[in-house]
Design brief:
Elements lengths: L11 H23 L6 H8 L13 H19 L12 H14 L1 H11 L4 H23 L9 H23 L7 H23 L6
Length: 213
């Protein structure tokens, strides 16, 4: 009987990446309880199973870790908004919100971090979230510019429309986080209100006449 094959050793880079992700996950979990500003480096290191001095092999400071958490959260938000970044139309608002709901429920801790840290906590983290939201809005404006019906819109008009869409979706995220029971009538009301808001924005875009000199 031949011996069972020996598992390939985990590379040093893979172990380092795994520890880095554990630090991020631990910080996110702890910040859910009391806010990122009240989470200590020592706690995060202990939760990841390393000594505090080893933390600095992965992040220069807790601020840097918080900024990385903000970037991770915005990547989740980008995924949640992917449906909304397709060609907009009143008919696809419901599908966009269904995709958004799925992401919010799958990543509640990340979205709560975004909601809480955006307007409070560590200034560096709040600035990082603001910057990421601006980048997301610019990306959406670029997508809108590819739509034939918006071909004669200038960059300012496109940016305004993108900002309205991102703001509406972000508010829906915040409202969903306030729902106590997923699948409840309250959740349905939030989605119905959000769908109405998005339809109004998109219909307004269709009626807008770009300024021409």
């Amino acid at each position: 009987m031949s011996a069972a094959p020996t598992p390939a050793p985990t590379s040093r880079a893979a172990r380092k990446e795994r520890t880095r992700q554990t630090l991020l996950d631990t910080a996110l979990s702890l910040s859910t309880e009391r806010g990122f500003a009240n989470v200590s480096l020592r706690e995060v290191a202990r939760g990841a199973g390393i000594v505090p001095t080893a933390f600095y092999r992965h992040f220069a400071s807790m601020d840097e870790l918080g900024i990385e958490l903000a970037a991770d959260t915005m990547r989740v938000l980008r995924s949640a908004l992917r449906e909304a970044r397709r060609t907009p139309g009143p008919g696809n608002a419901r599908a966009s919100l269904a995709a958004l709901l799925t992401q919010v429920r799958a990543h509640e801790a990340a979205f709560r971090f975004l909601a809480r840290e955006r307007n409070g906590g560590q200034p560096e983290v709040a600035r990082a979230i603001t910057t990421e939201l601006r980048l997301l809005t610019r990306e959406l404006a670029v997508d809108l510019a590819r739509i034939p019906a918006l071909a004669d819109w200038d960059s300012d008009d496109l940016g305004t429309a993108a900002d309205l869409l991102v703001t509406a979706m972000l508010q829906i995220v915040l409202d969903l986080l306030d729902v106590d029971r997923p699948g409840s009538a309250t959740e349905a009301e939030v989605l119905a209100r959000g769908e109405k808001q998005m339809r109004i924005v998109v219909l307004g875009m269709g009626a807008w006449k770009p300024h021409r000199d």
